[in-house]
Input
Amino acid sequence: MEQLAPFGDEQHYAHPSVAAITWWDFTDAPGHFWPHGGFLRPDLTPKESYERLQRLITGWRAGA
Output
């Protein structure tokens, strides 16, 4: 089972002192920093964490 990035807790992103969030590896391709920490599998298919991030970005752009 995939581990999911902690995007369900939007209060971290809403805090006024948070200016940016850094993510190390976009894919799980070889040479990654965190094992299984990417948003895409080694074959570049999206993981659930990628879909969750997309929903958050869509909400931010919509002003939600």
About this structure: The chain has two helices and no strands. The chain has a mean pLDDT of 78.
